[in-house]
Write a structure and sequence with these properties.
This protein is an alpha/beta fold. Helix content is about 40%, strand content about 15%. It has 26 helices and 19 strands. Strands 9-8-10-11-13-12-17 form a seven-stranded mixed β-sheet, with helices on both faces. It has a five-stranded parallel β-sheet with strand order 1-2-3-7-6, sandwiched between helices. Strand 8 (about 340-345), helix 16 and strand 9 (about 365) form a beta-alpha-beta unit. The longest helix has 22 residues, at about 610-630. The chain is globular. Bound molecules: thiamine diphosphate (TPP). Thiamine diphosphate (TPP) binds near residues 79 and 183.
Length: about 625
């Protein structure tokens, strides 16, 4: 491929083969163009910007050196894979990123042969890479396998389980540790401190031959540090932790120096056994607003690329989200009860704990990306008199299911779960959907499970759950509710009590949580009864018996998987009681719902007002036809 020095190089790259045809020095220009492209792109589509800007040179160097797609690149979390997508034939479709029928915001095996492993949750890449390395060894394939994992993702247990295993197997794989000292917010914990010590040079104590060989003749981060600090003598080994696990530790090297990256990766490609390359990058690199505030630009909506201002900051008056309701509640309750402790697995901003973390520093625990640990930690606290509140996304709570059952519920410990992003979450797509929590929570003994239909109810349910002497979950959706103001003195809600919201005839809609507004709208057109069920567990059985006896058909509505969800709870109860009333279950069908806006996803699932109305009309027409046939 030839091009004049001024032409846009990125436009000429339709596959990694095109990239590999370039002379190495052109990678620097390409990196600049890629950054411009990413900033423009994400300003229009929204998405994960800071992590992508931080991995520009790394992505170029990996595709330049490795023979993708035959060699496998496995991105951890996958939120930093945009340039990987651009280089692998998807540049023209990038403007459809995260939108309905468009490209996914994460690697996806259905989207491209270059996406070796589907992802969205963190810390899976080393396990997957090891699996592929074992498969390659068994088939005698010379393919190389590379996991690219951030220092945040490296805080999770699974990453260490995989390192432990890979080291023992002496497997042929390369782990690239992308160290930017950030998770979404600043990274936490002993590992993070350890990596910082490596960079500061204080652990450089012994000479290591392997690292010397791979890095010789290169101005590594380490060498730059050595030149600056004259006390450093020769290439020495910082990587003892990884070495002890059986890895050959290389680095740290500058992750924005394409020449250093290419040279090191080439050397590593020729080595066998488990290798760990420590690369140092800056999150948000090359875009000032993101460098200054990488947390804001971790995941962002549309913004003005010139100023970095979010478009939503500029136009609309702020609306209180459910996350905001939790944020208010947890601070107010902490004022009232000094036993309250708030725990988050690395989601301070997303879970609404920023204010709490400032006001109650000693009662705030960010445990890193360690959902399992967060729950057992809470269980331990609850055993000895503290009142832990675990703020967690529905999708990430899946990680800690055994801890939920075995450590919390089995011991009937008073832990409150503030479960955010319940139900459909929109553009992040199926990896982040909270579609299963009502199913997986309601089958656990001792749990109380609540689904608020508005902001005030959410606040009151949090109080209700906090006052119980047993585990409780309040599960609320992403974004804002119908806009109900918080009452001045919000009290708790009687456990297991539903609320009759509209009296109609023939049909009763039994609604769990956020679909209430849509259900009320449909009910107006149908003249149906509407019950705000509030509790998935325990159900308001008395009210259920009453509505079952007074209506021709019951319809449950929830933004959870229909299979095993709240509607199933109603079906089980009716069956147990021998109440033979026709029942329709509305909710998320038994399939993964692809990325789209939340509104589009609700429509796809038939959970918007019009779809609810149409579906019930059809069901009723069917019932009437059946009744006529029987006559
Ligand atoms: C199991 C799980 N928990 C939480 C998250 C949310 N999350 C996405 S990226 C991220 C931070 C990752 O930090 P790091 O690996 O260092 O990558 P960086 O964004 O800094 O490049 C978190 C907590 C997730 N994706 N998966």
């Amino acid at each position: 491929m030839s091009s004049s020095p001024d032409s846009n190089l990125l436009d000429l790259i339709d596959s990694p083969a095109d990239l590999r045809a370039l002379p190495q020095f052109r990678l620097r220009q390409l990196a600049k163009e890629a950054r411009r492209f990413l900033i423009e792109l994400v300003s229009e589509t929204g998405g994960h910007l800071a992590a992508n800007l931080g991995t520009v040179e790394l992505t170029l160097a990996l595709h330049y050196v490795f023979n993708t797609p035959d060699d496998r690149l496995i991105w951890d979390v996958g939120h930093q894979s945009y340039l990987h997508k651009i280089l692998t034939g998807r540049r023209a479709a990038m403007d459809t990123l995260r939108q309905k029928d468009g490209l996914s915001g994460f690697p996806n095996r259905n989207e491209s042969e270059y996406d070796s492993f589907g992802v969205g949750h963190s810390s899976t890449s080393i396990s997957a890479a090891l699996g592929m390395a074992i498969a390659a060894a068994r088939t005698g394939s010379p393919r190389r396998v590379v996991s690219i994992i951030g220092d945040g993702a490296m805080t999770a247990g699974q990453a260490f389980e995989a390192l432990n295993h890979a080291g023992a197997l002496d497997a042929n794989l390369l782990v690239v540790l992308n160290d930017n000292d950030m998770s979404i917010s600043p990274n936490v914990g002993g590992l993070s401190n350890y990596l910082a010590r490596i960079l500061s040079g204080r652990t450089y104590s012994t000479v290591r031959e392997g690292s010397k060989k791979v890095l010789q003749n290169m101005p590594t981060m380490w060498e730059l540090a050595r030149r600056a600090e004259e006390h450093m003598k020769g290439m020495v080994v910082p990587g003892t932790l990884f070495e002890e696990l059986g890895f050959n530790y290389i680095g740290p090297i500058d992750g924005h120096d394409t020449d250093a990256l290419v040279k090191t990766l080439r050397n590593l490609r020729a080595l066998s056994g488990p290798q760990l390359l420590h690369v140092v990058t800056r999150k948000g690199k090359g875009y000032k607003p993101a460098e200054i505030n990488p947390c804001k630009f971790h995941g962002i909506g549309k913004f003005d690329p010139l100023t970095g201002m979010s478009r939503s900051d500029a136009d609309a008056a702020p609306v209180k989200t459910y996350t905001g309701v939790f944020s208010d509640w947890v601070c107010t309750m902490a004022d009232a009860d000094d036993k309250l402790i708030a725990i988050t697995p690395a989601m301070r901003e997303g879970s609404g704990l920023v204010e709490f973390s400032k006001r109650y520093q000693d009662r705030y625990f960010d445990v890193g990306i360690a959902e399992q640990h967060s729950l057992t930690l809470a269980a331990g606290m609850a055993c000895d008199g503290l009142r832990p509140v675990v703020a967690i996304y529905s999708t990430f709570l899946q990680r800690a299911y055994d801890q939920l059952i075995h450590d919390v519920a089995l011991q009937n410990l008073p832990v409150l779960f503030a479960i955010d992003r319940g139900g459909l979450v929109g553009n992040d797509g199926p990896t982040h959907s909270g579609n299963y929590d009502l199913s997986y929570l309601r089958c656990i003994p001792n749990m109380t499970v609540m689904t608020p239909a508005d902001e005030d109810e959410c606040y009151r349910m949090l109080t209700t759950g906090f006052q119980l002497h047993s585990p409780a979950a309040v599960r609320y959706p992403r974004g804002s509710g119908p806009g109900v103001a918080l009452s001045d003195s919000p009290d708790s809600i009687p456990v297991g009590k539903a609320e009759l919201r509209r009296e109609g005839k023939d049909i009763a809609l039994l609604v769990f949580g956020s679909p209430l507004a849509a259900a009320l709208e449909a009910a107006e057109r149908l003249d149906a009864t509407v019950v705000n069920m509030r509790f998935v567990k325990p159900l308001d059985e008395a009210l259920l018996r009453q509505v079952a006896s007074q209506h021709q058909r019951l319809v449950t509505v929830e933004d959870n998987a229909v299979r095993g969800g709240a509607g199933s709870a109603v079906a089980e109860y009716l069956a147990e009681q021998g109440l033979n009333v026709p029942l329709t279950l509305l909710g998320i069908p038994d399939e993964f719902i692809e990325h789209a806006s939340r509104e589009q996803q609700l429509e796809i699932c038939g959970l918007d007002a019009d779809s609810i109305y149409q579906r019930i009309q059809r069901e009723m027409a069917g019932t009437i036809a059946t009744l006529r046939a029987v006559d």
